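Budget justification aside, the reviewers requested a transparent look at the raw inputs and outputs of the sequence design task funded under Objective 1. We therefore reproduce one unedited record. The lines immediately below are the structure tokens for a 150-residue chain.
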């Protein structure tokens, strides 16, 4: 996340397809969105208290689970899904060290706790940097999320 942060009324966020669940139930704010920082920011930064549970966004299989993330991810998890026949992946970065509950190859269910919020890697505050990939290309996660809290 950058220093710029605005308060977002989560209830005002229009519902997307709802195919992907929110990775957090405790978001205090959304700072940088997809396309921020001149287009270089390829995820959504969701601020939440340290150690808040992070939830798998859909049924799937863990492809990456590590504390040594490259590119500033810190501790992160990536999960592979097939949604309506399309390959979708979700990625959850900056988790607190020692909180990952799943390893690569493990099957997970939507809503399963996979780790805790932190600020590992390039992070200046506790948050989840959340990425969504469709056919391995990063896309804006927001249109894929349902109403917050679902
Ligand atoms: Zn980010």
């Amino acid at each position: 996340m950058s220093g710029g942060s605005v308060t977002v009324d989560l209830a005002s966020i229009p519902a997307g397809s709802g195919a992907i669940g929110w990775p957090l139930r405790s978001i205090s704010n959304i700072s940088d969105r997809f396309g921020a920082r001149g287009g270089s920011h390829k995820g959504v930064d969701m601020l939440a208290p340290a150690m808040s549970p992070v939830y798998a966004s859909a049924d799937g299989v863990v492809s990456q689970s590590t504390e040594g993330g490259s590119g500033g991810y810190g501790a992160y998890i990536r999960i592979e899904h097939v949604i309506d026949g399309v390959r979708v992946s979700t990625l959850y970065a900056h988790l607190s060290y020692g909180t990952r509950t799943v390893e690569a190859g493990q099957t997970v269910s939507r809503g399963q706790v996979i780790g805790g919020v932190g600020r590992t890697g390039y992070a200046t505050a506790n948050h989840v940097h959340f990425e969504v990939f469709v056919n391995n290309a990063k896309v804006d996660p927001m249109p894929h999320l349902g109403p917050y809290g679902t």
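The first strand starts at residue 29 and ends at 30. The radius of gyration is 14 Å. Computational costs for records of this kind are itemized in the attached budget.
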